[in-house]
Design brief:
- Homodimer.
- Its EC number is 4.1.1.20.
- Belongs to the Orn/Lys/Arg decarboxylase class-II family. LysA subfamily.
- It comes from Neotamlana nanhaiensis.
- By secondary structure, this protein is an alpha/beta fold.
- It has 2 domains: about 20-265, TIM Barrel, CATH 3.20.20.10; about 270-385, Lyase, Ornithine Decarboxylase, Chain A, domain 1 (Beta Barrel).
- It contains 12 helices and 18 strands.
- It has helices at about 5-15, 20-35, 55-65, 70-80, 95-105, 115-125, 160-170, 190-205, 230-250, 260-265, 300, 390-395, and strands at about 15-20, 40-45, 65-70, 90, 110, 130-135, 155-160, 175-180, 210-215, 255-260, 270-280, 285-290, 310, 320-325, 330-340, 345-350, 370-375, 380-385.
- Strands 1, 11, 12, 13, 14, 15, 16, 17 and 18 form a 9-stranded mixed β-sheet that branches. An 8-stranded parallel β-barrel has the order 2-3-4-5-6-8-9-10, surrounded by 5 helices.
- A hairpin with a 7-residue loop joins β14 (about 320-325) and β15 (about 330-340).
- The protein starts with a helix and ends in an 18-residue tail after the last helix.
Length: about 400
């Protein structure tokens, strides 16, 4: 999208506002499928948690994607977006058996990462096929909070517990139709990913009725000029060839599955804000904007980087600014950034705002969550209205304090 198109979004829908480029989402989806074109059966299931707007889900459905869900509510969103149950995989962590049962009754694919839950589910529903999430004990990911395949992770069943899984399968007579792993987000070294994949292949040999092997995702996207990213084309060539060889060894054409979220939508998103004030202190120039960590928490939560561009003055002289929000605590988006000269009322654009941005937004400080807009077919489409005061108070129930409590009588 161009700066003028983004400025038009602010003019039409106000600020702050999230804008997503449908063409970029489609480009990323096709890039991933082309990278693995050597694989006969490939299934991409978009990770709903990255960005769960139903219009985005419908767009991905139209491209042929399935969806990866982590809550029963995401399962319901997938169904509402038109995905058939067999296009939905449910990969929760730490949920109750009843939530897994609810998902199973809807007919979606089930992925279990807990021995106790596996045994309980297999005992009650031995005829329902189940995928197992394995923890390969491989450290991958760009941040400790998003590295989920290491030995101390709460995710997955340890590879050292495979004998326990086999015992449960034998006792319950349940069918294991898939093996899954997810090492973490922001994968920098594909050799680490390929190493973890070998562990998954070895594990898969233990199960004779597989339909698919799911390698999760975590592909890194570039956050700034010159930033490294996962070499998806090289990974596609190496892992695709290895997967095809494994299928020959296994004696069956399995499906190679991935669950990308950030890779598909991150770069498609722009978060647009207006500058409320420029504040000079003894050592810093602050650009104070009409948003905060309530709308975009990743910089404060993960220390993540988002390029910040002044689209109102793209040719202006560069100066150093610390961009901060209006939340009543430390609320910094970027420190000492070189940005084209900023004035009150200018529109700033935060790049890479498609994944884990709106989906992690809140009403902290009783602020409204912003609108969402989709750029599709050369037109801006409002896909979520900005919240109102009625939305903020909708589910609150007031107590009548005019009724005074009766005093207890003294005995």
């Amino acid at each position: 999208m161009t700066n003028n198109q983004l400025l038009k979004a602010v003019e039409e829908f106000g600020s702050p506002v999230y804008v997503y480029d449908a063409e970029k989402i489609e480009f990323q989806y096709k890039r991933l499928t082309n990278a693995f074109k050597s694989v006969k059966n490939l299934k991409i299931s978009y990770a709903v948690k990255a960005l769960s707007n139903i219009s985005v889900l419908k767009l991905l459905n139209s491209l042929g994607s399935g969806v990866d869900t982590v809550s029963i509510q995401e399962v319901q969103l997938g169904l509402a977006a038109g995905f058939s149950p067999d296009q939905i995989i449910f990969t929760p962590n730490g949920v109750s058996l009843s939530e897994i049962e609810e998902a199973a009754k809807l007919g979606v694919k089930i992925n279990i990462d807990n021995l106790a839950i596996l045994e309980q589910f297999g005992t009650k529903y031995p005829k329902t096929p189940v995928c197992i999430r394995i923890n390969p004990h491989v450290m991958a990911g760009g941040n400790s909070k998003i590295s989920v395949g290491h030995i101390d992770s709460k995710f997955g069943i340890s590879i050292h517990q495979i004998p326990h899984i086999l015992r449960i399968v034998e006792n319950t007579k349940m069918t294991i139709n898939g093996i899954h792993m997810h090492t973490g987000s922001d994968i920098l070294d594909i050799e680490v990913f390929l190493y973890a994949s070998e562990i998954l292949f070895e594990t898969a040999k233990q199960f004779k009725n597989l339909d698919f092997i799911d390698f999760g995702s975590g592909f890194k996207v570039p956050y700034k000029a010159g930033d490294i990213e996962t070499n998806i084309e090289e990974l596609g060539k190496k892992l695709g060839d290895r997967f095809n060889d494994f299928c020959k060894e296994y004696g069956k054409d399995l499906t190679l599955a991935f669950e990308p979220g950030k890779f598909l939508v991150s770069e498609a998103g722009s978060f647009l804000v207006k500058v409320n004030a420029v504040k000079q202190t003894t050592s810093t120039v602050f650009a104070q904007i009409d948003s905060g960590l309530n709308h975009l928490i990743r910089p404060m939560f993960y220390g993540s980087h988002h390029d910040i561009v002044n689209i109102s003055n793209p040719e202006g002289r560069e100066r150093f600014y610390t961009v901060v929000g209006y939340i009543c605590e430390t609320d910094t988006f970027g420190s000492n950034r070189r940005i084209n000269e900023i004035n009150e009322g200018d529109v700033l654009c935060f790049k890479n705002a498609g994944a884990y941005c709106f989906s992690m937004a809140s009403n902290y400080n009783s602020r409204f969550r912003p609108a969402e807009v989709l750029w599709y077919n050369n037109k801006l489409h409002l896909i979520r209205e900005r919240e109102t005061f009625e939305d903020l108070t909708r589910n609150q129930i007031e107590v009548d304090f005019s009724v005074k409590p009766k005093k207890a009588l003294a005995k």
